[in-house]
Amino acid sequence: MAKSALSFVCQNCGAAYNRWQGKCDGCGEWNTLAEEDITGATTMPVSVRSRRKGRLFTLETLTGKTQDAPRLSSGMAELDRVTGGGFVRGSVLLVGGDPGIGKSTLLTQATSLLARSGHRAVYISGEEAVAQVRLRAERLGLADAPVQLAAETSVEDIVATLSEGTVPRLVVIDSIQTMWTDTVESAPGTVTQVRASAQALIRFAKKSGAALILVGHVTKDGQIAGPRVVEHMVDAVLSFEGEGSQQFRILRAVKNRFGPTDEIGVFEMTGLGLREVSNPSELFLSERDLGSPGTAVFAGIEGTRPVLVELQALVAPTSLGTPRRAVVGWDSSRLSMVLAVLEAHCGVKLSGHDVYFNVAGGLRINEPAADLAAAAALVSSLTNAQLPTDAVYFGEISLSGAVRPVAQTTARLKEAAKLGFGRAVLPESARGDIGGDAGLSLDAVAGLTTLVADIAARGQARPGSPGKRTDPEKNATPGQNRRQGG
Ligand SMILES: Nc1ncnc2c1ncn2[C@@H]1O[C@H](COP(=O)(O)OP(=O)(O)OP(=O)(O)O)[C@@H](O)[C@H]1O
Ligand SMILES: [Mg+2]
Ligand SMILES: [Zn+2]
């Protein structure tokens, strides 16, 4: 019997220390160390280590045959898109997200749909009683689905139960923080328990071929053992995001051993559960502030799918020594770069202004292609010049102020045309990529200076201000044609 080993384990990253210290050297967080009994969790002491000779095993070739379909469709196209085409046999998925974002709802729907199509699907809740899960299923209209349900937290009991009968195709564990295993002494929810429990469940999945989904709570301050330590152990990490006040929910692959990590799944939270949104552009543009200065529509690409989204900028004179720069949904260093280029090459003076920048609908944009749309929104806000309401923008801005082409020009234009936009402001050099009729008029810009001059001219020609009036927009409300059906 090994004597119990007390140690201080960082509840954020899992680093272990012999004595308490205020700051974790591993991740730099403060006050995250907690005393844990890590007996059996770390490698065994030398005396216990087996001295037997290694067992011989066969080495396989890469071309071995795999048993039946390696992917299992979840019945939800948006979920399949993010996982890369469905659940892989024996794979383990971690779904993380803020409290109340809809993790249990999403996974109840997925297990129910699988069970309805005749697969053995198991939902283990460590957080809610069976009655609560039933109540949710009833609300979602899924009470008739033959899901196998239990409220359990002991990993040994769960593995024993799941090993009986036919191998389940999908097992959901809601959540990994509530699970505990006999093999370690620490309290449930501690890093050591979470890691040991996840290990045991993952071993079961790999051995049996069942797809396993672990739900993990994310807390920003790292108080509860975050799923960070589990991230390395699983095959894919999906993050479920959304703004509390809004109905959109975005499922994003943060890591995926079997698929791409740039795809997003878009859902809408309704009383009847999560509704899949197969055309996110219509959703993101549906509540658009039509034509107010400081907004521009960006024709972006998320994974393989074009997504139009509104970028909003507010540029206002500052009262502070150092002006504020606040960004939501975009990279703040990217914003700084666009601001610097505007200032250096286009004579747009922004150093005396606060800049607030927001991507509508809670979407987060990573593409450099958003530069041009962001610049348009910024200049539009600064000059109080309304941009054409029927225009979309895309293009990368280089440090020299040139507008560079981006990938998938045709897909962006097609989406814009489909949603009723009449023109696209795009890089001059992208013209070559467009075969035939684009379906909308193209406004190619070679440099940022051209764009700034155009917008400034609109500002001077604004109705109500002296000068020439602009042409009335021929199609004033693209993107406003609310999605049909529901
Ligand atoms: N009757 C209802 N009508 C509409 N939406 C509801 C209703 N009941 C719950 N919801 C939505 O479902 C959300 C809770 O979903 P769910 O329990 O799946 O979240 P979760 O991520 O599993 O939360 P937790 O972290 O607490 O386990 C609520 O925040 C709310 O948005
Ligand atoms: Mg839940
Ligand atoms: Zn740490």
From TrEMBL:
Residues reported in the UniProt entry to bind ATP: G97, D98, P99, G100, I101, G102, K103, S104
Cross-referenced Gene3D superfamilies: 3.30.230.10, P-loop containing nucleotide triphosphate hydrolases
GO annotation (BP), single: recombinational repair
Region (Disordered): 457-486
GO CC entries: cytosol
Location of the motif RadA KNRFG motif: 255-259
Residue numbers spanned by region Lon-protease-like: 354-486
InterPro entries xrefs: AAA+_ATPase (IPR003593), DNA_repair_RadA (IPR004504), P-loop_NTPase (IPR027417), RecA_ATP-bd (IPR020588), Ribosomal_Su5_D2-typ_SF (IPR020568), Ribsml_uS5_D2-typ_fold_subgr (IPR014721), Rubredoxin_2 (IPR041166)
A Pfam family reported for this protein in Swiss-Prot or TrEMBL: Zn_ribbon_LapB
Organism classification: Bacteria, Pseudomonadati, Pseudomonadota, Alphaproteobacteria, Hyphomicrobiales
Full protein name: DNA repair protein RadA
GO molecular function, one term: ATP binding
Domain commentary: The middle region has homology to RecA with ATPase motifs including the RadA KNRFG motif, while the C-terminus is homologous to Lon protease.
Coiled-coil region: none
Natural source organism: Nitrobacter winogradskyi (strain ATCC 25391 / DSM 10237 / CIP 104748 / NCIMB 11846 / Nb-255)
Residues in RecA family profile domain copies: 68-218
Keywords: ATP-binding, DNA damage, DNA repair, DNA-binding, Hydrolase, Metal-binding, Nucleotide-binding, Stress response, Zinc, Zinc-finger
Family according to the record: Belongs to the RecA family. RadA subfamily.
Function per UniProt: Plays a role in repairing double-strand DNA breaks, probably involving stabilizing or processing branched DNA or blocked replication forks. DNA-dependent ATPase involved in processing of recombination intermediates, plays a role in repairing DNA breaks. Stimulates the branch migration of RecA-mediated strand transfer reactions, allowing the 3' invading strand to extend heteroduplex DNA faster. Binds ssDNA in the presence of ADP but not other nucleotides, has ATPase activity that is stimulated by ssDNA and various branched DNA structures, but inhibited by SSB. Does not have RecA's homology-searching function.
Ranges of biased composition (kind: Polar residues): 477-486
